[in-house]
Amino acid sequence: MIKVGIVGGTGYTGVELLRLLSQHPEVELTVITSRSEKGIPVAQMFPNLRGHVDLCFSEPSAENLAPCDVVFFATPHGVAHALAQQVLDQGIKVIDLSADFRLEDADEWEQWYNQPHGAKSLLPEAVYGLPEVNREQIKQARLIAVPGCYPTSVQLALLPLLEQGLIETSGIIADCKSGVSGAGRQAKMGALFCEAGESMMAYAVSGHRHLPEIRQGLTRAAGSQVNLTFVPHLTPMIRGIHSTIYAPGKTAKIEALGVDGLQALFEQRYADEPFVDVMPAGSHPETRSVKGSNMCRIAIHQHKDTGLIVILSVIDNLVKGASGQAVQNMNIVFDLPEQMGLQVVGLLP
Amino acid sequence: MIKVGIVGGTGYTGVELLRLLSQHPEVELTVITSRSEKGIPVAQMFPNLRGHVDLCFSEPSAENLAPCDVVFFATPHGVAHALAQQVLDQGIKVIDLSADFRLEDADEWEQWYNQPHGAKSLLPEAVYGLPEVNREQIKQARLIAVPGCYPTSVQLALLPLLEQGLIETSGIIADCKSGVSGAGRQAKMGALFCEAGESMMAYAVSGHRHLPEIRQGLTRAAGSQVNLTFVPHLTPMIRGIHSTIYAPGKTAKIEALGVDGLQALFEQRYADEPFVDVMPAGSHPETRSVKGSNMCRIAIHQHKDTGLIVILSVIDNLVKGASGQAVQNMNIVFDLPEQMGLQVVGLLP
Amino acid sequence: MIKVGIVGGTGYTGVELLRLLSQHPEVELTVITSRSEKGIPVAQMFPNLRGHVDLCFSEPSAENLAPCDVVFFATPHGVAHALAQQVLDQGIKVIDLSADFRLEDADEWEQWYNQPHGAKSLLPEAVYGLPEVNREQIKQARLIAVPGCYPTSVQLALLPLLEQGLIETSGIIADCKSGVSGAGRQAKMGALFCEAGESMMAYAVSGHRHLPEIRQGLTRAAGSQVNLTFVPHLTPMIRGIHSTIYAPGKTAKIEALGVDGLQALFEQRYADEPFVDVMPAGSHPETRSVKGSNMCRIAIHQHKDTGLIVILSVIDNLVKGASGQAVQNMNIVFDLPEQMGLQVVGLLP
Amino acid sequence: MIKVGIVGGTGYTGVELLRLLSQHPEVELTVITSRSEKGIPVAQMFPNLRGHVDLCFSEPSAENLAPCDVVFFATPHGVAHALAQQVLDQGIKVIDLSADFRLEDADEWEQWYNQPHGAKSLLPEAVYGLPEVNREQIKQARLIAVPGCYPTSVQLALLPLLEQGLIETSGIIADCKSGVSGAGRQAKMGALFCEAGESMMAYAVSGHRHLPEIRQGLTRAAGSQVNLTFVPHLTPMIRGIHSTIYAPGKTAKIEALGVDGLQALFEQRYADEPFVDVMPAGSHPETRSVKGSNMCRIAIHQHKDTGLIVILSVIDNLVKGASGQAVQNMNIVFDLPEQMGLQVVGLLP
Predict the structure, then answer these.
(1) Rounded distance, CA D211 to CA A303, Å?
(2) Where would one find the signal peptide in this protein (chains A, B, C, D) (predicted)?
């Protein structure tokens, strides 16, 4: 049994980790920390866990985490740099769900997150935990940076096209719609039921922190600098991300392939991926089809009128976009079947 | 492996059975029928099942169901009487999620459902599938009538009080709030997003079909005729039932017990029940704490001002109120661990 | 034109007052205060007011409010006691939407609100602003206490029965369901979209601050002490209160009347009331039918099985339950047609 | 007083017309038709209208409509062609909310709507009722085609740019998110609360009926053929459209203007428009800010990274996207102040 610790268990990615890990056959939940809730039973804060998780929150310290084989960090960005180093020094694997180790370039990180990076020396060894790209490196990693929710959804939709050089590296647009849980479990005015409900809005049109992460991933896939316009939207639902991606095809290549060829390309690229589902041509995936599940569903379209390639991609932001992907990484690191504990069927309706 | 058939798999209890059974380690999904969708892959209608269920819908007939060990009926009331008989005749167990075999009294059934009962001869052997009451009879049953959603929620909240003769048998009030999925997956005006959303309403105040079922169950528990006022409400959420139950205590007995005694009584009554969670005194259970889970959570209150006993009880109407309870019955019938395939943690948020 | 000031304009009752008053033909919006938002245009905080309200928030002080004919207090309880006195001293009418002047008994107030009452000397002249009961006193009042949302909904449903002595004064139950806006516009965890959405829960079962207010109003109507069990519930919708009220009839009197007599009684009682709509017998009012409107809709039922009287009553908690009723009071005080500015049709869907 | 008839009053645009017209000071609601509901009081179907509208539904016939000065058609496309002709023949103005007279080209109409056009001879005189473009023609019109919801939102966002030749006429993308009421008040599976709730999906990616209408309007504004990619999405809210529009600027011209110049251009273009609100630079309009209101709010952005122009535009699909715009047209036709009856403040929260 793998002994697991969670640092910062009071947010939505924390409770989602607990939901998944409490059902995982090879995991022993060992420590869960929260400075503010120290001593409180986890199941008192999250009553869905009653009967499933007996732990109490404890102080986040290297000492408390010492018995673990792996520690998940479900903390806001910037708060866990120091502790992550101490945990690694004890020979424990670290899987970080925050943005702290996602960007290779510390300067870029500092610019987008408005604070000094507290663990630059760890950046070179951090592995970007998108299994569909980095499975081999993940196997060897000590420190894994779990991708953000928007970046997961956008990259999976564009990888096959960029890897094959079928689209231009500029002019890409990602119009993304996220459920409100993406804002986290904090008492913020904008996330109130009466503020976010029955309404739709774009935000951060001028620039969102996930932009450099997406750009970095797409650039790697393309082998040359990619630029894109990324516009996130707040959608009145709890879970889910729907990305609508407009990809400017290289005309000759796309004409040669046709829509059927594109469809085949995606199917081939993801044939062996347990958590990417290429839907039949012409599908319109719904976010609810992946509610609670680690699946990413993708559909490929070509607009009749303009010929533009339109990719639709849906995930559950808290699962494939966070905690589920984190567990997927853990399975890879510990050489377990990658789907173990993750074969949850989406909750529909 | 138990070979399972489902008759009428296109509704919400059908897809919920598929979600649960596709993860059940001892089940082999064998047949799923729908007259209207014959030949269509189940996963085309319910994309959350893609990769989990490969079956196509087939014609509902005794012949098609012949290979099964057990058949779940997830049909509307009144449509499966004849087929149920034929299935039983083949030596197959039947677990019926409709109302067809819940009432002992065929006359009462015919009066509430406005049609002749098509299988009266089966009524004497039908077992009411509330494991918390009838576990022993369920073990021996050929034909199980899975309780309705409201009746499950109300009975579990009142059983301890009635069994101990602590409350009056008249004057009980059950004010129940149900999510919209209780209305089924049919294109009805009142269940539209724009009709049921952002609104609350009572319905069937003058009498609802679940009333005789609740009354029958409570009467059995009390050992004498129980009458109650039952008012269902349509609530703008997808899943969940919240029952608020006002129980007139027998003054002397309740005073002798006190709230602590009541709490202890409930805890004792359900100590060995895997799917009833008596919450700490003073709790306010939320329906979301059981979303997707087979748990019923109960809290006991006594109103400070009036001394009235108020019981709060929450279930997921599609799980403990239908498909989950059906699987729980199957586990009992086939002598499997009762929790097998049902230890899903509620999806929160 | 009546010059109107609003103290505490940043909450939901504040913005709702602005919506209604900006359309009122006899009102000139003159001052709106908020300590925290001083200098900010109101329409920047509430973009629905762009083009309708040009005011900026200003400091709440007697001086700033001096030009007003009437001042609405839309502050949390307990914060405006001193300022209310100063405003009254300038000869300005005060219409208070908080709970500060609703209870006649200062001791009871202090006990439920856990703080000393800061303006006891004003209590004797405060008029409880339920026009359906106190219209004549309101006409003469300097200081009006606008009823709470739950109390409005419950009292209007019970007044005809209690005034006529048709029901017992104990054993009444009010099971009330409120939209989330009742929790106010404050960044509280429990009011987050992902906490309150897709879920139903009771709260404050052991006792809620609106209980003494309801009891006081019902006791006045009955002419003798009334006790009731009041259980509020949080419902996943933005606006609306649905009260389901169980009223123990005095058997002989109710039998003499019958349901038709009860219906006639309610119709007569409210025949001249512009904002109480007695629906046809057997109706099930929906909260959405009053969304944005000052109407209270009521339906009378008698449960077939138990004979219990069940009254259904719906209001918009922010309109008839707060700001609309406040404007209705203003119209009465200033001898304007009572419906002026309040004939908004409910927004359906 | 203008005598108004409504044909097809049982849908959402019908009830919305009734809400607005019942408050309009110069309108006398005279006839409302529905074949299926003949004889039923309107307020029985739509209880929000109780006390505001006394009419009963009557048979849709030229005879019944004869007393009217103007008739609104709120029927599905294709059903009112013949009746519209008869009504016009009686000297009555027709304001059609369906798609029947929006496209100049009958062939294109027949192709997108899969049926013969039943009133081709009326097409030449039909005026496209977008006041921000066609105010002068509307004044003279007998027959007005009220624009669709998506087309209104997209055109208002692009007109200033296309009229000034600032963007390319190909490469435009409109990613639009609509509330569920856009699907109409019909018992369709996909519009159920449990199907459309808590989920997001694109639909009709390959081509939607509003595409030719948008293209026609944009082409007129540009003076040359415009092509665009239009992707509609179903959003879990009742009302509202949020259009996110990606407009490829002509580089030199845009650089010359800068974002400030673009902002000024929009402000100038709409300076005298009562129902277009150009928000401050950098704003993110929310659909709820126009809930129930006839306003269109627009914000202009330029993406920092790519320089792409991004326009955000929100309307209430049932008001500015249908019934409110219809009333605005009526006001123009009858030479009334254009805002009469339409100064409703958005319902927030």
Answers:
(1) 11
(2) none
Beta bridge partners of D311: D245, D300
Count the neighbouring beta carbons within 10 Å of the beta carbon of residue D253: 14
CB contact under 8 A, B238 and D187: no
- Tell which residue, C121, C212, C229, C125, has the closest CA to residue C175: C229
Crossing angle for the helix pair D210-222 and D131-140, to the nearest 10 degrees: 90
Rounded mean pLDDT, A303-327: 96
Q: Which CATH number fits domain B150-317: 2.70.98.70, 3.20.20.70, 3.30.470.10, 3.30.360.10?
A: 3.30.360.10
Which chain A residues are closer than 8 Å to B12 by Cβ?
349
Residues of chain B found within 8 Å of residue A294, distances taken between Cβ atoms: none
- Amino acid code (one letter) for A1: M
By C-alpha distance, the chain A residue nearest D198 is A237
Measured between beta carbons, the chain A residues lying within 8 angstroms of B344 are: 23, 344
Determine, for residues B197 and D12 on separate chains, whether the beta-carbon distance falls below 8 Å: no
The pLDDT tens digits for B168-217 are 999 999 999 999 999 999 999 999 999 999 999 999 998 899 999 999 99
Between CA B181 and CA B11 the distance in angstroms is: 10
Q: Is D327 on the interface with C (CB under 8 A)?
A: no
Residue B305's pLDDT is 86
Per-residue pLDDT tens digits for A165-184: 999 999 999 999 999 999 99
Q: How confident is the model at residue B304 (pLDDT cuts 50, 70, 90)?
A: confident
Question: How far is B315 from A86, CA to CA, in rounded Å?
Answer: 44
Minimal CA separation from B189 to chain D, in Å: 5
CB-based contact A277 B349, cutoff 8 Å: no
CB-based contact (8 Å) between D346 and chain C? yes
Q: Smallest Cβ distance to D194: which of B185, B194, B198?
A: B185
Q: How far apart are CA C199 and CA B285, in angstroms?
A: 10
Structure token digits, residue C256: 């003499």
How many pairs of residues across C and D have Cβ atoms under 8 Å apart? Answer: 92
Asked if the Cβ–Cβ distance from B47 to A285 is below 8 Å, we say yes
Name the residue with tokens 């919006």: C29
- The alpha carbon of residue D266 is apart from the nearest alpha carbon of chain A, in Å, by 18
Query: Among the CATH numbers 3.90.420.10, 3.40.50.10420, 3.40.50.720, 3.40.190.290, which is that of C2-146+320-333?
Result: 3.40.50.720
In chain C, which stretches have pLDDT less than 50?
none
Cβ–Cβ contact D13 with B under 8 A: no
The sheet carrying C143-145 orders its strands as C57-58, C27-33, C2-7, C70-73, C93-96, C143-145, C127-128
Domain ranges for chain B, please list them.
2-147+320-333, 150-317
Q: How far apart are CA D177 and CA A202, in angstroms?
A: 11
| Of A76-80, A144-148, D337-341, the least confident | A76-80
Q: Is C201 on the interface with B (CB under 8 A)?
A: yes
Residue C192, Ramachandran bin (φ over 0: left; ψ between -120 and 50: alpha; else beta): beta
B181 touches chain A (CB under 8 A): yes
Q: Residues 6 or more apart from B185 whose CB is under 8 A from it?
A: A349, B10, B11, B12, B15, D189, D192, D194, D195
Residues in C touching B175 (Cβ below 8 Å): 175, 244, 246
Q: Which residue has the tokens 């999620």?
A: B97
Closest CA to D150 of D78, D238, D212, D206: D212
Inter-chain CB pairs, B–D, below 8 Å: 56
State the fold for domain D2-147+320-333: Rossmann fold (3.40.50)
Contact by Cβ (8 Å): A133, A221: yes
| Banded model confidence at residue A79, pLDDT cuts 50, 70, 90 | confident
